[in-house]
Amino acid sequence: MKLFDVYPLFDIHPTKGEGCYVYDDQETKYLDFYGGHAVVSIGHSHPHYVKKITNQLQNIGFYSNSVQNKLQKELAQKLGELSNCENYNLFLCNSGAEANENALKLASFQNGKTKIIAFKKGFHGRTSAAVNVTDKAAIQAPINKTFVTEYHELNHIESVETSLKNGDICAVIIEGIQGIGGIEIPQPEFLEQLETLCKKYNTILILDEIQSGYGRSGHFFAFQKAAITPDLITIAKGMGNGFPIGGVLIHPKFKAKYGLLGTTFGGNHLACAAGLAVLEVLEKEDLIAHSKNLGNYFLQQLKTIEGIQEVRGSGLMIGLEFDFPIKNLRKQLLFEEKIFTGSSSNPNVMRLLPPLNIQKEQVDFFIKKLKATIKTYTSIPA
Ligand SMILES: Cc1ncc(COP(=O)(O)O)c(C=O)c1O
Question: CATH number of the domain at 14-43+286-379, please?
Answer without folding.
Answer: 3.90.1150.10
